[in-house]
Write a structure and sequence with these properties.
Elements lengths: L2 E6 L13 E4 H4 L4 H13 L5 E6 L5 H14 L4 E9 L2 H10 L5 E4 L11 E7 L8 H11 L4 E6 L9 E5 L2 E6 L3 H10 L2 H9 L4 E4 L5 H12 L7 E2 L20 H7 L7 E5 L6 E5 L2 E3 L1 H11 L12 E5 L5 H9 L2 E5 L7 H5 L5 E4 L3 E4 L7 H15 L3 H12 L1 E12 L1 H14 L7 E2 L2 E8 L2 E2 L6 E2 L4 E5 L4 E6 L7 E11 L9 H4 L1 H11 L1 H5 L6 E2 L1
Parallel strand pairs: 3-4, 3-5, 4-9, 10-11, 10-12, 15-16, 15-17
Antiparallel strand pairs: 1-7, 2-6, 5-6, 8-9, 12-13, 13-14, 17-18, 19-26, 19-27, 20-21, 21-24, 22-23, 24-25, 25-26
The structure holds 1,6-di-O-phosphono-alpha-D-glucopyranose (G16).
1,6-di-O-phosphono-alpha-D-glucopyranose binds next to loops.
């Protein structure tokens, strides 16, 4: 017996999606009507009757129960079919792929990405469009507006769907297809990369460490790297997804993936190391004794992508988020292809990819991807690196050295100041914005400021405008400081300070990034009065 119930509800404040969907503390999401209001608002905006959606998440705490609620609400709102990853699990790029592969009307992804998971940690939900990419601001804003006036939601009274069983299920009038979360994604990867060459490289003794940080990519990494490519058993560590990520902070950066960093800088380091995040869209790559910054990774991938079969015809263009270093721009210029600078947030790449203007996109926040899906894709980036290593037969360190010798080096680092009181962070940004007009011409740390602004972006495809996307201070010697507040945190404010300095070479290409950036770092503190506003003198995380 199934019955549709209409439940009276009232708006709950604060359901405004951030950089990538709605992310809150898990107890907030588990609060009365919280998930239901947001899902109903989403269905009200995107439409649900007769539609087909993909549903999956990164397996964090509450993922399983939230999936059952979303399924019952989809059925009550008249959806025709939902394709769900087994156990309600799908990595974000795999979900994007399934949306595209099946030509669905979009999908719902349950994830708070790299944020920790667990009863007291973070949860999140976002809607992806029929192109497989995160909903643009116009849609997320409409969903938010809807949450402010919502009065009821619909839910089907029914038993849980057995999401452990692959195959077709029925939920009221709605079909639920439970699918293997890995198979289609692995096939897609096999179509882009030279798997025989990678198999030969592993057979020749190439050693790798893949740290899935107890998050969603474990099964994907084991299937692709160990089973299909023949990497030694045990290459993949932390490969079982856990609801609390084993207490880890599944953010693949040198701070949170410290065990991987330690191994890669040890005497027994393998040839290549990689890590991915909670929902599998981020990646970090490390060579033996050398860390690859995400901005450099994007540039190297863009310069060498043609070595992989999926990109043999070359790239149409390269896009990066504004705070990402300009290293990729130099590659685009050398290749004579388009280059684009967008606000932070993968959703801004969607139009460029759909319009065929960009093939590869990347961000300083450990995200790289291409037009194969409409999300960034951690394992994709790792496989492209492996493909490049297999063809060039050089170490990561040699590939980076060659790259810098050819293009010069954009020294780069991001300093994060976490859990600042929101009012203090807002006051600092307001003061900074107020000071912009007077900055050009000033000399700080021996560097002359040539321009300062608050980044605004006009989408070249649909002409939509996004204002106030980060304060930029540019210097005469090519150095740059960017300040913005994170849009993905759930506690107070996180101030991100992005630091960049260009060295043309041939000398001075192998300094430690923090050393090379020292004057820029000092200037960043002086210009924004970080200590005076926030009481912080040192960052919590340095990437
Ligand atoms: C999300 C977005 C990325 C963004 C990152 C950091 O990634 O998709 O585009 O760069 O957040 O954003 P912020 O600086 O606002 O915290 P993810 O991996 O969290 O989905």
């Amino acid at each position: 017996m199934t019955q549709i119930t209409t439940v009276p509800t009232a708006p709950i404040t604060g359901q405004k999606p951030g950089t990538s969907g709605l992310r809150k503390k898990t107890p907030v999401f588990m609060g009365r009507h919280y998930l239901e209001n947001f899902i109903q608002a989403t269905f009200d905006v995107v439409g649900c009757a007769g539609k087909t959606f993909v549903l999956g998440g990164d397996g964090r705490y509450f993922n399983d129960r939230a999936a059952q609620v979303i399924l019952r609400m989809a059925a009550a709102n008249g959806a025709a079919r939902v394709i769900v990853g087994q156990g309600a699990i799908l990595s974000t790029p795999a979900a994007s792929h399934l949306i595209r592969l099946n030509g669905t009307d979009g999908g719902i992804i349950m994830s708070a990405s790299h944020n920790p998971g667990g009863p007291e940690e973070d949860f999140g939900v976002k809607f992806n469009m029929p192109n497989g990419g995160p909903a643009p601001e116009s849609v997320t804003e409409a969903i938010y507006q809807r949450t402010t006036v919502i009065t009821e939601y619909k839910v089907l009274e029914a038993q849980d769907v057995d999401l452990a069983r692959i195959g077709r299920h029925q939920l009221g009038a709605m079909v639920v297809d439970v699918v293997d979360p890995v198979a289609d994604y692995a096939t897609l990867m096999e179509s882009l990369f030279d798997f025989p060459a990678l198999r030969a490289m592993f057979a020749d003794g190439f050693r790798m460490r893949m740290d899935s940080m107890c998050a969603v990519t474990g099964p994907y990494a084991v299937e692709i790297l160990e089973k299909r490519l023949g990497a030694a058993k045990g290459t993949c560590v932390n490969a079982t997804p856990l609801p609390d990520f084993g207490g880890m902070h599944p953010d693949p950066n040198p701070t949170w993936a410290k065990a991987l960093m330690d191994e890669m800088f040890s005497d027994t380091a393998p040839d290549f190391g990689a890590a991915s995040d909670g929902d599998g869209d981020r990646n970090m790559v490390v060579g033996r004794g050398i860390y690859v910054s995400p901005s450099d990774s994007l540039a190297v991938l863009a310069a060498n992508a043609h070595l992989a079969p999926g990109y043999a015809k070359g790239l149409k263009g390269v896009a990066r988020s504004m705070p990402t270093s300009a290293a990729a721009d130099r590659v685009a210029d050398a290749l004579g292809i388009g280059k684009y600078e967008t606000p932070t947030g993968w959703k801004f790449f969607g139009n460029l990819l759909d319009a065929g203007r960009a093939t590869i996109c990347g961000e300083e926040s450990f995200g790289t991807g291409s037009d194969h899906v409409r999300e960034k894709d951690g394992l994709w980036a790792i496989l492209l690196w492996l493909n490049i290593l297999a063809v060039r037969k050089q170490s990561v360190a040699d590939i980076l050295a060659d790259h810098w010798a050819k293009f010069g080096r954009n020294y780069y680092s991001r300093h994060d100041f976490e859990a600042i009181e929101s009012a203090k962070a807002d006051a600092m940004m307001a003061a900074l914005r107020g000071s912009l007009a007077g900055l050009p011409g000033q000399v700080v740390e021996g560097m002359t400021i040539t321009a300062a602004d608050d980044f605004a972006y006009t989408d070249p495809v649909d002409a939509s405008v996004s204002m106030k996307q980060g304060v930029r201070v540019m210097f005469g010697d090519g150095s740059r400081i960017v300040y913005r507040l994170s849009g993905t945190g759930t506690e107070g404010a996180t101030l991100r300070v992005y630091l960049e300095r260009y060295a043309a070479g041939p000398d001075g290409l192998d300094l430690d990034a923090q050393e090379a950036l020292a004057p820029v770092i000092r200037a960043a503190h002086v210009l924004a009065g970080i200590a005076a506003h926030t009481g912080r003198t040192a960052p919590d995380v340095v990437t």
